[in-house]
Amino acid sequence: MKRQLVFALLLLLAGLLVLGSWLADRKLKELRHPGLSRFVKQLVTNYPASFQVEPAELHIRVEQRDLDRLQEIVDEARARGVIMPEGRDYVPADIIAGDDSFKARIRIKGKMTDHVKGSKWSFRVQARKDGGFLGMQRFSLQHPGTRNYLTDWFFHQLMKGEGAIALRYGFIRLHFNNEDLGIYAYEEHFGPELLEHNGRSPGPLFRFDPSLFWEHRLNTMNKLRIDEPYAAFQAAAVDAFGTGDLARDSATRAVFEEAVSLMEAFRRGHIPAAQVFDADRIGARHAILDLVGGHHSLDWSDVKFYYDPVLRRIEPVAYESFSAYPIRSLAGSHRYVGYTDPGMDLHDAYFNDPDIFRAYVRHLERVSRKSYLDSAFAVLAPALDSASAIVYQEFPYKELDRSIYYHNQRVIRKLLEVPKGFHAYAHEQRNDTLAVTAIPIEGFPIEVHGLVANDGSLIPPIGAAIIPVRRTGYPGVPMAIRFHVPDSLSTPRARDRQIAYSVLGSSVRRQLEVFVHRFSDGVTSVARSEASAPDMRTWPFVAVEEEARIVHLRPGRWTLDQDLVIPAGYRVKGTTPLRFDLVKGARIISRSPVELIGFPDNPVVLSSSDRSGGGVLVYEASGLSKWEHVRSEGFGRSEVQGASIIFQDSDLELMNCMLGEDRARDLLHIIRGSTLLSGGMLVGGRDQLTTVHARVGITRTEFLGGGDKGIVVHGGQATLKDVTIDGAVSGGIKLDTHAELKGQGTIIRTDGPGIRCSEGSRMELDRGSIETPVLGIDVKDARLRYGPSTVKLQGVHIEAGQGALSVGAGNTVMVDGSKVEDSATPPQP
Known about the structure:
Helix content is about 20%, strand content about 35%. Helix 4 runs antiparallel to helix 9 (about 280-290), helix 4 (about 150-160) crosses helix 12 and helix 9 (about 280-290) packs across helix 11 (about 355-365). Strand 21 and strand 22 form a beta hairpin.
């Protein structure tokens, strides 16, 4: 009986041990630890190793009343869920570091409550001028877990090796009011000694002030979701570390003002990023963040800067990395769209600068080589062993997991090895120019180096040819690339043509074949055959400067009864007094940019006395067309060309122009390319402005009396500022096929729906009004092919006879910060 009882107890103990082991293993894995067996091995191996190093010790002493004040701040932070700046007051402290002692001020530091857990509070220390620790007058003391133990130490060592401004970072034992708080991480703060230690000239250290952003974070944590414009990157002030020095020293203040001026010029889109920042160091920082898996630090509120007053360049300061995590994409993935905009996030603006992206990819190729990590670990071995031993005294299970870094190297290499950069379609070859249509398919910008000639040499593209990324979830936007083929070279047959390319900045070049067929997206305008048109030089009003490649349109009143065709490779210039009368279906067709300049009281005039004019077509023009004070009086119906004026794969500026047309014909089509409309008026026409996969900016422009719709945006992006659409019969604005529109001060008065939004489109309207007897805004049901649409309205007044909004199923509509549920006839906003 006793044996049976003992056996049963042994079985019970074994079962409890197995169950306990299983629960412990599960809990460890929930905490991102490999599991119990590894945990036991770490205890057995690492804890004894910790006795090989004696960490430096810091002793901090504060008076009881000051300790009570710190406790109040901690209690308030725990209750609120965040540490707010106004509660982080400094208190005096005495500090002993080895044989040295000094006076200092300390406060609670950090934003989140991980800095005030238990008794291991985080402190910011500011020594008096005659004191400091390891050469630092300003530094932080915090639980090693707030920087993920050894991972930030390793990050700073790598950044130091890259020549970046790296913080001094390490581990000590901390005593606070005679209580042993265990192992702490120390982290240098931002002051002159940081620059001295990193060999930099004295200059401002600064950031974008995140305090208002943290107001937003607090609201979010309290489940209060409201419109907070003050929390955006664009609203953050440029904030200097050491503002007391600015107040005391006018020279220091002047240098900081230089830095602010540069940063604001960059943020507002006036100066390219590479003219403001040290492109190489920006690229290196982000390549290292990819290597260590520090993507959580890609937030404008976490980035710190230094302004070099000698080179007049801004460079990043290596700050917390939030690593190490396995990556699936790269910091620069899916960002390069080929232009910058003041509405972009900080990192999007960085990565849309070609020079910065090139530097970034160069560093990615270097740091993703296995030898880079092998060398780093070999060089850092003694220091890493010492730092690890100190951490193991309290956290023997917190090793530096080297496998994550090697994994990230493999991911970087694989992502840079794009299987195909883009799709290329045959377009046409005319005279000595060959054109192809490129369709983006990648998450990286692709640089086209040339068309491969028969002898293996490269025929470079005309102008820079950088293919932007394909936006995630959307088809690529077509882009025309042209090559000038001299008589001395010949290209392979169409079926054998190859294009050489690389990821922008990569040292690895690849080739892809050009499809023999043309690309068609179903909306491209195809020009009528131009073979029968007379040579442009036969027209009496055309004068050609061959050496300068300029086509002059002589002043006068001219009638065209045949097409005027201007080939590629020129610049066309015409100034008032100038008037063209297009009759018998004649058109002006140009593959070169066209500049027409009139005056307010004497504009350049385009007309058709017999109301049969074909209109104006500018397509695949390499360069910017500029029309100023141009009046189009309409051409009437045309069987040849749909819209009166078409710009296809060509960039355009329209300033103070008045364009008109009969209501039976579309007025202006923009197909791909970029267009700016400013200070003008579009009168009549069927659809007054149609954009197709284009980027269009419209300011202070009126759309009056359209026979159908005012503006149609089919894919691409449009921005409207102080635009009025008045009298369009069938509706003000129509968005479809992933179109994006942002408007400020938009006024719509129409007999049809104010705005129609469908097929995965996105719209943001800030201020303005919509007046219509029918529906104000109609957001069609989300469809599987295109996905949901998103509409955000802020301060938009809607007067609509059949209701302000109709929100189809699956879409997101926000009105003044509140979500509108799916509804056929929701209430007025």
